[in-house]
TrEMBL record, chain A:
Annotated gene: RBM48
GO molecular function: RNA binding
Oligomeric and partner information: Component of the minor spliceosome. Within this complex, interacts with ARMC7 and PRPF8/PRP8.
Region Disordered, annotated ranges: 219-245, 282-304, 345-369
Higher taxonomy: Eukaryota, Metazoa, Chordata, Craniata, Vertebrata
Basic and acidic residues: compositionally biased ranges: 219-230, 349-359
Protein name stated in the entry: RNA-binding protein 48
One record GO biological process: RNA splicing
Annotated family: Belongs to the RBM48 family.
GO cellular component, one term: spliceosomal complex
Function: As a component of the minor spliceosome, involved in the splicing of U12-type introns in pre-mRNAs.
Residue ranges of coiled coil: none
Length: 369, 198
């Protein structure tokens, strides 16, 4: 059966509002009741057809309302279009497709001057060039989005592997000494970080000395390229010209995984973008990061009491002053010793009450005899 | 009525898509199949879902549904393919799975949306640059496009014209045109059904 018109401005099947689906299974019911319809790029258009506009001379208001969603190129009333009594039909052409999509989504089924608007696309009004451009833009958008996504996926894989080898990392850290460990951490972070997040390379760089910077700059670029191509972490690590034995143990124990605070930082800074992490994992991450910072801090500052559980800020050590008198020195030492005892005894009970620690900690510290 | 699988709200996008696919495969209700297929086809519009859709083999599900008798299912399936085929990985999957003949078959559907989606899908499947996929520019297909370019429907005319201009060489078009003059009726034009006016 032929349609009532192939001419522009006549009723088409895709203009008709379909009935809302009421037999949907509960788990797939959306927030708004919707018809069963598939939207393809063919159906979407910068041209919108608006039906159900009350015939009370509100064209200007209508256009102003739609203009909220984007620039409008042209608009006109469609007088020949079959319309309900006392309603008018308008055609609005937006400058770009995205505005039209938003406008349709927001304005469809909205009340307007007492009438209910029905908004739909009108691709039949497009010229050949407009259709061609529409298809090309859609293709470009998809290609660009999936290319970006590929790199996020690479980063995601690195993160999940990183979590698996947490234990490996702890062991490695305890084995190696200060600077070497820092260098290793720098290597892994630089080598396996996302090439599209250059700051992830730079963050650990500014932590550590400039010695690392020059030598790892070159490999970073090569590493990023090869990780993009093959995702073969053996190769990326092979490019590094640091300590050979260090590298080998790295490769053997870590294999394809990342292990360093730098990568953690890069990941968390872009957490909001793509990753869904349950809250418990976030808390664990933060705890781990705190511990790593502490460990790095202790390595750099050579804290003798390395096994303390530190809660709250690291207070400055009380300087030891020689009083040039034996009895005075003894007294001073006793007091210092007492203070240390008091400080160290505080963290133990309030593992359940961290707030008390924070408040009681400075109080005890300030007591002077 | 369709079944109601228990889906945890926290299961995420992949879980939801999995539930849809499962329902599609298990349900007996045509309505439910249509709803689920439409849902999947709309998901196929958003590139962020492509990884999941490939994982769940939804592309094969779409290709299989092209052979269904229910015209609505075919319309939704080809719509889904049309939505996701600009992506390179999806395109390769469809080509390797032998999807091109199935999509060419859709050109003879009486449903206008199906035909439009099929044409667009074929255009996206063409390799970039001026090299053409031989199946796409075979004479029957070009002849079909020539007939579409004379259609009363503006949308069909436009798409056919773009296909002939951008995806066929002038020689192929000329050859198809000359053969058409002698051959019997080719692929029938689709019709779009509009409801009667009040």
């Amino acid at each position: 059966m032929a349609s009532s018109g192939g001419e522009l401005g006549s009723l088409f099947d895709h203009h008709v509002q379909r009935a809302v689906c009421d037999t949907r299974a509960k788990y797939r019911e959306g927030r708004r009741p919707r018809a069963v319809k598939v939207y393809t790029i063919n159906l979407e258009s910068q041209y919108l057809l608006i039906q159900g506009v009350p015939a009370v001379g509100v064209m200007k208001e209508l256009v102003e309302r739609f203009a909220l969603y984007g620039a409008i190129e042209q608009y006109n009333a469609l007088d020949e279009y079959p319309a309900e009594d006392f309603t008018e039909v308008y055609l609005i052409k937006f400058m770009n497709l995205q505005s039209a999509r938003t406008a349709k989504r927001k304005m469809d089924e909205q009340s307007f001057f007492g009438g209910l608007l029905h908004v739909c696309y009108a691709p039949e009004f497009e010229t050949v060039e407009e259709t061609r451009k529409k298809l090309q833009m859609r293709k470009a958008y998809v290609v660009k989005t999936t290319e970006n996504k590929d790199h996020y996926v690479t980063k995601k894989k690195l993160v999940t592997e990183h979590k698996d080898t947490e234990d490996f990392r702890e062991d490695l850290h305890s084995e190696m000494s200060g600077f070497c460990k820092a260098a290793e951490a720098l290597n892994t972070s630089a080598g396996n970080s996302n090439p599209y997040l250059p700051y992830s390379c730079e963050l650990p760089l500014c932590y550590f000395s400039s010695k690392c910077m020059c030598s790892s700059r070159g490999p970073v670029d090569r590493a990023s390229d090869s990780s993009k191509d093959g995702r073969n972490h053996h190769k990326t690590m092979g490019h590094y010209n640091h300590n050979d034995s260090l590298r080998k143990t790295q490769i053997n124990s870590l294999k394809n995984s990342v292990a360093c605070p730098g990568a953690q930082k890069a990941i968390t800074s872009s957490e909001a973008v793509d990753r869904f992490m349950p809250r418990t994992t976030q808390l664990q991450e933060r705890k781990r990061r705190r511990e790593d910072d502490r460990k790095l801090g202790t390595f750099l500052q050579t804290n003798p009491s390395g096994n303390e559980i530190m809660i709250g800020p690291l207070l400055p050590d009380i300087s030891k002053v020689d009083m040039h008198d034996d009895s005075l020195n003894t007294t001073a030492n006793l007091i210092r010793h007492k203070l240390k005892e008091v400080i160290s005894s505080v963290p133990k009970p309030p593992e359940d009450k961290p707030e008390d620690v924070h408040t009681s900690h400075p109080l005890k510290q300030r007591r002077r005899i | 009525m369709a079944q109601k699988p228990k889906v945890d709200p926290h299961v995420g996008r992949l879980g939801y898509l999995q539930a849809l696919v499962t329902e599609f495969q298990e349900t007996q209700s045509q309505d439910a199949k249509e709803q689920v297929l439409a849902n999947l086809a709309n998901f196929a519009y958003d590139p962020s879902n492509y990884e999941y859709l490939r994982q769940l083999q939804v592309l094969d599900l779409f290709l299989d549904s092209l052979s269904e008798e229910n015209e609505t299912l075919v319309e939704f399936a080809i719509g889904g393919l049309c939505n996701l085929c600009p992506d390179r990985a999806n395109k390769e999957h469809i080509l390797h799975a032998g999807g091109v003949p199935l999509i060419i078959n859709c050109l003879s559907s009486p449903n206008e949306e199906t035909v439009l989606s099929a044409i667009t899908t074929l255009m996206h499947l063409s390799p970039p640059g001026r090299s053409f996929l031989p199946e796409l520019t075979a004479t029957p297909v070009v002849q079909c496009m020539l007939r579409f370019s004379l259609s009363a429907s503006a949308r069909l005319r436009n798409l056919a014209q773009i296909f002939l201009e951008d995806f066929c060489s002038p020689r192929q078009v000329a050859e198809a045109r000359s053969r058409q003059a002698h051959s019997a009726l080719g692929i029938p034009l689709p019709r779009s059904v509009a409801p009667r006016q009040r």
